[in-house]
Design brief:
mainly alpha; about 0% strand
Length: about 350
């Protein structure tokens, strides 16, 4: 059940709230651009993330229609400052998170080699999965998939997206690690499914997406560091509370689909729950999932379960996607206010 609520839900939301005028504008945008320019398991993560794209309605309408200006003269000098600023955020986040949440570290002399190896292998697959999603989403967007997706019925998008996500995810879970061809084929299909759902995000400014990615890496990296160096199994108790929290976040994500547009105050509250509550919940899931990986490494070392970094990486991929989507929306809202 938990895996269902976590799997990316992004599609439904985007389609519902982007009006017909925006869809016509997106067609004009594609015509204008030249080919060169342009867990607690995962189901609870799946539902929460497909609701993501419905939310940033005005962000899509305003940001992608404005052509990006090339970096020239003074702006080129600001690039170094922005990189330093981003690096400072990453370092500061890691330090602050470790100081606040990691006062009790491991008492067994540090991470054993088999745990370190399993965790590194899981992170490698997580990075590869996110890379596949990014490349596939860009390719689908340039082919016109995003425009067709936004013109579809939102409920068809929700049901179809969930069915594909959950089907490929559980198919991957059920496949033995020894059957690596089928295992990686289903894992790749899962990532491409997420790319198809997330492709409308490519209407956003590349600079905004890059910043959102940097902040997501900073947040997940700092939390993962805490989870990896904390006392053994210290945060595994979070599974139940996080499942309850992600259920609330998922329900709030459905609000724009069922509530009338006149319920402004209610929609505002559900927006905040979905946005900021979701950041807190999926940050907690990152902490939980890292400790769960280490727990599975110990079980695999004793021969109780099979070593399977592909399955472990899916949970962290869903954490990344759900945090990234919210970072994109927060940055887009800030950009609108300027």
């Amino acid at each position: 059940m938990a895996f269902t609520l976590r799997a990316p839900f992004v599609l439904a939301t985007a389609v519902k709230q982007i009006p017909k005028t925006a869809q016509r504008s997106s067609r004009a945008f594609h015509h204008f651009s030249s080919p060169k320019s342009l867990h607690a398991g995962p189901i609870s993560k799946t539902t929460s993330s497909i609701t993501a794209l419905i939310k940033p309605r005005n962000v899509f309408q305003r940001s992608y229609m404005q052509p990006a200006s090339p970096i020239t003269g003074p702006n080129a000098g600001n690039l170094t400052q922005r990189l330093l600023y981003g690096a400072g955020i990453v370092g500061g986040t890691i330090f602050a998170t470790n100081l606040l949440f990691n006062r009790e570290t491991r008492e067994d002399g540090g991470m054993p080699p088999f745990e370190r190896s399993y965790l590194n292998e899981t992170f490698l697959h997580t990075g590869l999965g996110v890379g596949i999603i990014g490349v596939a989403a860009s390719a689908l967007h340039q082919s016109g998939w995003s425009v067709r997706l936004m013109g579809s019925n939102p409920w068809v998008v929700i049901v179809g997206g969930l069915a594909m996500s959950i089907g490929t995810m559980y198919g991957c879970f059920a496949t033995s690690p020894e059957n690596y061809v089928q295992k990686y084929a289903l894992w790749t299909a899962f990532n491409v499914t997420q790319a198809a759902i997330l492709s409308p995000l490519m209407f956003m400014s590349p600079a905004l997406l890059a910043r959102a990615g940097l902040y997501t890496v900073a947040m997940m990296g700092s939390i993962a560091f805490v989870g990896a160096t904390a006392k053994t199994d210290k945060y595994l108790y979070l599974g139940g509370p996080l499942l309850a929290g992600v259920a609330v976040v998922a329900v709030s994500g459905f609000a724009p689909l069922v509530l009338p547009a006149t319920a402004v105050r209610t929609l505002m509250w559900t927006e905040n729950i979905w946005l900021y509550g979701g950041l807190a919940v999926f940050g907690g899931f990152t902490l939980y999932d890292v400790q769960k990986v280490l727990n599975h490494a110990r079980l695999a070392e004793r021969g109780l379960i099979k070593r399977d970094a592909v399955n472990e990486s899916i949970s962290l991929e869903l954490d990344f996607l759900n945090i990234f989507i919210r970072m994109v929306q927060i940055l887009g809202m800030r950009q609108q206010k300027r």
